[in-house]
Amino acid sequence: MLIPLSNTPRDYAWGSPTLIADLEGREPSGAPEAEVWFGDHPGSPAEVLDGTGRTLDAWLPAVAAAHGIPEKLPYLLKLLAAGAPLSIQVHPSKEQAVEGFAREEAAGVPRDAGERNYKDDNHKPEVIVALSDTFTALAGLRDIAATRALVDSLGDAPAVRTLRGHLSAGDPAEALRSTIGWLLGAARPAEIEEIVDAAASTSSEGFGAELALTRSLHRAYPADPGIVVALLMNLVELRRGEAIFVPAGVLHAYVAGLGVEIMAASDNVLRGGLTPKHIDVDELLALVDFRPAEPPFLAATPAGAGAEVFAPGIADFALGHLVAGEPARLELGGVSIVLGVAGGTTLTGASGDRIALRPGQAALATPDESPLVADGGGEVFVAMPGA
Fold first, then answer.
1. pLDDT band for position 180 (50/70/90)?
2. Would you say 28 and 17 are in contact if contact means Cβ atoms under 8 Å apart?
3. CA–CA separation, 16 vs 99, rounded Å?
4. Angle at 298 between CA 151 and CA 288, to 5 degrees
5. Which reaction does this enzyme catalyse, per its entry (predicted)?
6. Is 271 among the catalytic positions?
7. DSSP state, 15?
8. What is the pLDDT of residues 351-370, one digit of tens each?
């Protein structure tokens, strides 16, 4: 089966008022449009356009037995449009999620409570691929020698000296743990302000982009300790078609741009700044991988003419990418969701079913439609289970 899906944008405050509308070729709504979810997650399940009026979380269980498919998807596909920076955050591993969810359930913490850390018992690794010409993100903790050089350029204000002292404590991972623990847990607002002021007034050829981001973040989140946490992170500017993979434990934040995102079906987020929401410092410190690392770029693997796959090597998901200048063919890994992002694309399944997609439109493809063929000159992404 090839079945069309639809959903409406979520109006989180950080959303762009124009990026999703421009992709879909319509007038902006006037409200921020942050994400469109294509999946069966109960937070915003897609509508199945087969005349039944059902959403995907109800449709899948109703047809699963007859078609030999799972009742739930292991992934969630999104369009994400950041008009302002998202919070700095980290996601747990599967084991951490199971333990944390059980702990909060036993403690009777309501699942919708603001202080709740674990909404479910699943991990939430994710991949984002840039759709805008550039997509700006923070991902992982920078090489500590470079971070120390950046902080050395900020002058000698008392709070900067304290920051420098934490960054000199122990091995690199321990120094970064000490620094982030201090910034989020013990630093006074006046100390955060002093460091931010020093960064905002500093010019540096080597760290110009990082310091410019500091000034931008200060306007959006005055005196937020996450502004200084961001100074410790890799600043990444993806070009269109480039991707990063964010596994468990990696601090990250999406800053600006339009992307297609795929993640495990979870809502577990622990925040580390750039937010008015609850920050559980101790739990955050227990989850973060403090080892410095290069930005987590993910290259696509060729999958035949006109096809490639972003495959991070996990069971939950892989993300196919088809550019149908000539007919492109992709073997599906299971129940899949296809999202149009450019031009017009006609999908043809192995059964002979056909469906046309414009940018922003999506369709569900059952495994018996593999291989899926795309033509018409458009561009689509295909969410599917991983290996």
1. very high
2. yes
3. 36
4. 50
5. D-mannose 6-phosphate = D-fructose 6-phosphate
6. yes
7. B
8. 999 999 999 999 999 999 99
